[in-house]
TrEMBL record:
Name of the featured protein: NAD-dependent protein deacetylase
Record-linked InterPro entries: DHS-like_NAD/FAD-binding_dom (IPR029035), NAD-dep_sirtuin_deacylases (IPR050134), Sirtuin (IPR003000), Sirtuin_cat_small_dom_sf (IPR026591), Sirtuin_class_U (IPR028628), Ssirtuin_cat_dom (IPR026590)
Record localization: Cytoplasm
Deacetylase sirtuin-type domain span: 1-237
Gene3D superfamilies: SIR2/SIRT2 'Small Domain (3.30.1600.10), TPP-binding domain (3.40.50.1220)
Enzyme superclass (EC): transferase
Keyword tags: Cytoplasm, Metal-binding, NAD, Transferase, Zinc
Binding site residues for Zn(2+): C128, C131, C149, C151
Gene coding for it: cobB
Pfam family, one: SIR2
PANTHER family referenced in this protein's UniProt entry, alphabetically: NAD-DEPENDENT PROTEIN DEACYLASE, NAD-DEPENDENT PROTEIN DEACYLASE SIRTUIN-5, MITOCHONDRIAL-RELATED
Length: 237
């Protein structure tokens, strides 16, 4: 039995799969990985992206934040790939209970997934920092400079910036999902980003599967380790 067949068997025998995904899930949809060598960090800006995408920078250099954000963070032409689609299908079949993602692109929902914990938020949601009014991503794209609410407040993406805490209810929902899963599939993440990566320690289920191109700190705990592109893997089960 090869790895793909083993994965298919685990999936078939599972009733509450949780998928925990990272940037690698979206790179196959053409969205660059922040931390990969050919990702955003190697590109030329006045500040490193990690600085620009921080709370301090947003508060102090909001216009420069949005110049970068509009140019690099909004990949709205991206389409769900085979991994997104298969996960949505497994949820419909009642085999998958939740997707937990570190991505902010909304592609799981675009594929049809309903229970999605977005640990780092979503570029598709934006809120006035003064009155809380919602603005969609089109409003951000169509505005110039710093997007403002009709009340005069600054509109901020519902994205967890560096220095900012994760949303409590999102984290507790994700923890509960992991704690009650029979199978945890970790995909497209090297588990380097905390506190998000720390959530997987709540897993108490039977089958831990890791699908990633690079080694992770959890490899030694995995029942099945697949070192292939995640869209490719999910298109074959
Ligand atoms: Zn407002």
């Amino acid at each position: 039995m090869d790895n793909i067949e083993k994965l298919a068997e685990i999936v078939n025998n599972s009733h509450s799969i949780v998928f925990f995904g990272g940037a690698g899930v979206s790179t196959e949809s053409g969205i660059p990985d922040f931390r990969s060598v050919d990702g955003l960090y190697s590109q030329q800006w006045d500040y490193p992206p990690e600085t620009i995408l921080s709370h301090t920078f947003f508060m102090s250099k909001t216009e420069e934040f949005y110049r970068f954000y509009r140019a690099k963070m909004l990949c709205l032409d991206a389409k769900p790939n085979a991994a997104h689609l298969k996960l949505a299908q497994l949820e419909k079949e009642g085999k998958l209970s939740a997707v937990i993602t570190q991505n902010i692109d909304g592609l799981h929902q675009a594929a049809g997934s309903r229970k999605v914990y977005e640990l780092h938020g979503s570029v598709l949601r934006n809120y006035c920092t003064k009155c809380g009014k919602f603005y969609d991503v089109r409003y951000i794209i169509d505005s110039e400079g710093v997007p403002k609410c009709e009340c005069g407040g600054i509109v901020k993406p519902d994205v967890v910036l560096y220095e900012e805490a994760l949303d409590d209810s999102t984290v507790s929902g994700a923890v509960n999902a992991i704690a009650s899963a029979d199978t945890l599939i970790i995909g497209g993440t090297s588990l380097n980003v905390y506190p998000a990566a720390g959530l997987i320690r709540y897993f108490r289920g039977e089958h831990l599967v890791i699908i990633n191109m690079a080694p992770t700190q959890m490899d030694k705990n995995a029942e099945l380790l697949i070192c292939e592109r995640i869209g490719e893997v999910f298109s074959r089960i």
